């Protein structure tokens, strides 16, 4: 391949995508800080029970259940760049309410859940617009690499964000650390506003809202390969929601790790994600997107088996090292899979339906995530942390098996 051809395929050579990549990286950094800040806020500052921890996590996914399908239908009728700008600014304001309530002495578990729910409603529109906007910025043949570039920046943020967040929590407090998340959202909005690439107008339609939603749902669940991908992904999200709910409790309460040590564990997952994202394009080209997804989900099941079996050593840092090692592999599986899954879905979906198809998948995924988060909190309280994590392993394995036994095996994007 000539130098010019290689350059044409590199999405970062395109100014519009490059600006979008920077904007996304800023947002990823803020999200990484908020992940550890919310966990520490709810578990250590507010002293939530296991069931309450599950409820707070569920509140963050609930908007996808309630308005996800409507958001997708609306995004297909709106300018996607404008939706991203407004959504990020409103979300920044809502997140900022949490530290303000804390300083006023009025913050509680339930108010925290309410504000995260409201911010999540904005996140539904942001997520729908993000996945629908990307194919307007790069050629379709470059979508795997573009998603990989975004995955790389996300994992770099995940690598540095939790560690920085842990230090920020030590210097300030969990609620005040969320100011950084709010500032990052504002930065994201300002960068997206700088993109000058003309956006195609929304696809003209006289279709009623409910019919438009039904078209998106029907496209996903009647499609030869998207249907099994969706089913596998729904099972995966159920398992992952339980796992991430229990991981915070397992690390902070079960193993007695400090916020800094817990931040290092999340950082290890970010490092693994970066390595996986760097390998994602080559893996997809060699194995095909379908097989890459299947292999990654199999690896994911193995990592949570390792997490469940992490010994509680006398030396805390030995425990942290083992937990970091298994989370490194977990992050690798995510970084390897996500670009293939996103690119494959974006490639087989018509532009006019990208918002609805993406929201159909996300709404179902987050619906089962709500159930998973609530289940994780209850199971952790009844069975304890390790038995719950072993149950998670079986569910992850089922997700990989669903994809393996379907037409998704061997599916690939034309290059």
Textual characterization of the structure:
The protein is mainly alpha-helical. The protein has helices spanning 3-9, 15-45, 50-75, 80-103, 109-137, 143-171, 174-193, 209-222, 226-254, 259-287, 289-308, 316-348, 354-383, 385-404. Residues 1-8 have low confidence and may be disordered.
Tag the structure with descriptive keywords.
415 residues; mainly alpha; 14 helices; globular; disordered N terminus
Concise account of the structure shown:
The protein has 14 helices and no strands.
SSE layout and pairing:
Elements (H helix, E strand, L loop, with lengths): L2 H7 L5 H31 L4 H26 L4 H24 L5 H29 L5 H29 L2 H20 L15 H14 L3 H29 L4 H29 L1 H20 L7 H33 L5 H30 L1 H20 L11
Number of helices: 14
Sequence stretches where pLDDT stays below 50 over 5 or more residues: 1-8
Strand elements, count: 0
Average per-residue pLDDT, rounded, comes to 87
């Amino acid at each position: 391949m000539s130098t010019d051809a290689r350059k044409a395929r590199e999405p970062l050579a395109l100014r519009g995508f490059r600006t979008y990549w920077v904007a996304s990286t800023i947002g990823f950094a803020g999200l990484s800080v908020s992940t550890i800040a919310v966990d520490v806020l709810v578990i250590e500052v507010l002293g939530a029970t296991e069931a309450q921890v599950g409820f707070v996590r569920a509140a963050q996914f609930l908007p996808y259940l309630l308005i996800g399908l409507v958001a997708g239908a609306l995004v297909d009728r709106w300018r996607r760049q404008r939706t991203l700008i407004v959504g990020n600014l409103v979300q920044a304001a809502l997140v900022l309410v949490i530290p303000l309530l804390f300083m006023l002495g009025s913050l509680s578990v339930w108010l925290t859940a309410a504000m995260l729910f409201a911010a999540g409603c904005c996140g539904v529109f942001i997520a729908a617009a993000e996945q629908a906007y990307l194919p307007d910025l790069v050629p379709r043949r470059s979508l795997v690499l573009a998603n990989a570039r975004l995955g790389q920046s996300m994992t770099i943020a995940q690598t540095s964000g939790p560690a920085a967040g842990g230090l920020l929590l030590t210097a300030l407090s969990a609620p005040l650390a969320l100011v950084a998340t709010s500032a990052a959202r504002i930065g994201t909005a300002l960068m997206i506003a700088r993109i000058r690439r003309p956006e195609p107008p929304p696809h003209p339609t006289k279709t009623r809202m409910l019919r438009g939603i039904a078209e998106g749902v029907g496209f996903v669940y009647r499609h030869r390969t998207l249907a099994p991908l969706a089913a596998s992904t729904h099972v995966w999200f159920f398992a992952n929601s339980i796992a991430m709910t229990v991981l915070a409790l397992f690390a902070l309460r079960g193993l007695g790790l400090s916020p800094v040590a817990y931040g290092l564990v999340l950082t290890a997952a970010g490092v693994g994600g970066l390595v996986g994202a760097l390998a994602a394009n080559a893996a997809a080209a060699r194995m095909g997107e379908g097989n890459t997804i299947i292999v990654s989900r199999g690896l994911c099941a193995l990592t949570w088996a390792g997490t469940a079996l992490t010994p509680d050593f006398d030396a805390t840092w030995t425990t942290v090292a083992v937990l970091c090692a298994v989370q490194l592999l977990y992050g690798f599986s995510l970084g390897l899979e996500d670009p293939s899954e996103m690119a494959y879905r974006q490639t087989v979906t018509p532009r006019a339906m990208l918002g609805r198809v993406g929201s159909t998948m996300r709404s179902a995924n987050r619906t089962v995530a709500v159930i998973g988060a609530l289940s994780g909190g209850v199971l952790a309280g009844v069975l304890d942390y390790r038995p719950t994590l072993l149950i998670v392993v079986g569910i992850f394995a089922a997700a990989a098996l669903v994809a393996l036994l379907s037409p998704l095996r061997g599916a690939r994007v034309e290059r």
